[in-house]
User: Fold Secreted protein from Actinoplanes lobatus.
Amino acid sequence: MHHDTQERLRQLRGATPAKSHNARTVAALTGNPGCVRRALLDAAGIDKDTLAARLGFPARFGQSPFAITRGNAFEAQVKANGFAQLLTLLRETLGLELAEVGAQDLEEVGGNKNSELRYTRSRQALKAAVDGRDAPTFFDHPLLRLDVGGNDVYLEPDLVAFHHDGVLHVVEIKSFAIIDNQADGTKVAAAARQSAVYVLALRRLLGDDKVSHEVVLVCPKDFSNQPTAVKIDVRKQLINLEHQLTRLARIETLAGQLPDGLSLDPGTHSPAELLENLSTLEARYAPACLASCEMAFLCRHEATGCTDTLGATVREELGGVETVTEALGLAHGTRVPADDQQEAATMLRNTARIYGSAAAA
Ligand code: SF4
Assistant:
């Protein structure tokens, strides 16, 4: 990234430490690629959770401390004894005949957790594995990198990559249960989107044919701590992710448009100043933000009365009609449509007429 861009983003963040992207934030970013606010907050490494809370609109999602502890314990369990439980599951799920496997811990390099160092080490190890047709190997916590709108993002993964016969498989360990072979659809969909981010980062590093589109999801079975595994095909998520990544505006362009000296440092500004500064970053609120972005309650509050709050379908249908009041005026014929509102106005008038006759009948 260009030095000026880095400097502008650092100014925006202020003195608070930068927060890293992860697969969840990349997946969410691409879910709303038109949002300049989120793109800049994430590129600057701003802690959106803290910012939203400071502005009086704390996020209401994320894992509870209890769920995080449970998740960590489950992950440690399936990796214990040289990945014994994982190996058994992979034999069954991928149909592999494996007597034993090696393991490489890539969480640090000689006690050093520096991202650049870890990424270099991970890249070397993964390339050597797929090039050399090594023995099957688990790579624990490899650090990956992905270009997100011109910003190199390190992915702090909570994953294992399993290499066998020149092909890597992403293995995601999650603590939500699979009960009677059924799991919470929303959680599985989120896991698939996150896994697709890892698959894409690995494919860009190693080549498409070196990384399987089937990821292995490992979860507790029924109401026990026993793990079970299922394969998920993430081809659809990959296509969507690549498409959305290409639509993301380049960070350099967005950072170049920031007013000089704009800062969102909660340590130096009052909530009123923060709110004013934040309002210069254009948001594009949609109901899906509620499940994926820490700023959602604030952006929803700002967007009250806008047609955007009614979802992407309504936004597309009502292109050029920004507020609910305008839409009602056009529907009832009390407002004259602007040139770019003619099509939406005709549709609104027709809809109002049909609803009106249905209600009268
Ligand atoms: S909640 Fe706000 S900042 Fe986050 S993606 Fe939606 S519009 Fe953008």
About this structure: Residues 65-94 form the longest helix (30 residues). Residues 102 and 139 are 9 Å apart (CA to CA).
